[in-house]
Design brief:
CATH class of the largest domain: Alpha Beta
Radius of gyration: 22 Å
Number of strands: 15
Number of domains: 2
Structural class: alpha/beta
Distance between the termini: 37 Å
CATH topology of the largest domain: Aspartate Aminotransferase, domain 2
Low-confidence stretches: 1-14
Order of helices and strands: HHEHEHEHEHEEEEEHEEHHEEEHHEH
Number of helices: 12
Helix content: 25-40%
CATH architecture of the largest domain: 3-Layer(aba) Sandwich
Largest sheet: 7 strands, mixed
Length: 401
Amino acid sequence: MTTARPAVPSVGLASTLAVHGGTPVSASPVPFMLPKLAEADIAAATAVLHSGMLRAAKKCEELETRIAQLSGAKHAMTCANGTCALQLAYEPLFQPGDDILVPAWSYIATAAMLVARGCNPIFVDANPQTGQIDMADAARRITPKTRGIAATHMYGCPVDIDAVQSLASAKGLKVVYDAAQAHLSTWHGKGIGQFGDAVTYSFYATKNLATGEGGMTTCNDDALARQIRLLRSHGETNKYLHEQVGYNYRMNDIAGAIGCSRLDRLPAETDARRAAAKRYEQIIASTPAIARSLRALSITPGAVSAYHLFTIKLDLSTLTVSRDEFAKALLAEGVPNAVHYPRSLPQQPAFAKHLGNQKPWPVAEDFALSVLSLPMHHGLTDAHFGVVAEALAKVCTAYAR
């Protein structure tokens, strides 16, 4: 470990921000993410290239077996990407014309694949503390045509699964959990693959478990697993024998090999992310200038997050600038950041014609103006946290109202 900067930096009100020409806290930016492959990952991919077996084969099967075991699912099916994973889950469970409850605060794929299925997305507001789907609001938005819930484990943190399953049981709804950001997260000590009708994952290049592109759908029902496997590969039961129409959504063994190699390190890397989140929480709590201006989004009680992202919410009433101006100033001090997301899903033009008479989503709309993600990965050092602490305090103090 390198030497840490002071946990509570001393910053005067007259400090000049780097964005205005002052000296930055760090000339070397803190890495926002750490997507670099290890030599073992490259060797695993190379071994597949040498084998000539490039299609989905033993490495994809190994990845399926291992993730099913880690998540508590009975079945796991790799596929081309996380969006395909959603489509493979939605198609057997939902029918065109169904109303499906879906978070107003999520990545677009969660809702877009419902629209692609011909379903009607019924957008549900976010919980103001956690950013997860607000199940009290979900219950209010039930319609006579509601047939399912598509809930996202946002930022790596599980939703209130008990509340989701309770509503689903009471109303006879199917449940799909979008866990694209939540590899190895748990709910009351259990893997998230044990819950709902299906769970979907993404292995995109920036995810905690990244293969470049790739995805997976898990479930615990034998018939549903068979249906997903058929849909994944042209409805084929034997070579050139097709039971139904399907797609070519298969993964390949190069990506599977990279996934297996990186999965060896994922538990330790996830522990490092959790430790990093605690460091951030300590920085916020121990620095009054920071604590006055922002907070970390809360973790759902009973959940253990995988911390794909560490997302804060600015209290704009205490600041003289917007979130975007704050983010620009923080970047200039040496702390890269990102907005996840700058629009709620109902604010996306793609869904304009699907809103009908649905009501506003004040929490999600507020998040779109006030959330910011800080660097989060397994390689953060004491020095990195020192830079973030000093930069946050400097910017919060300079822009204090």
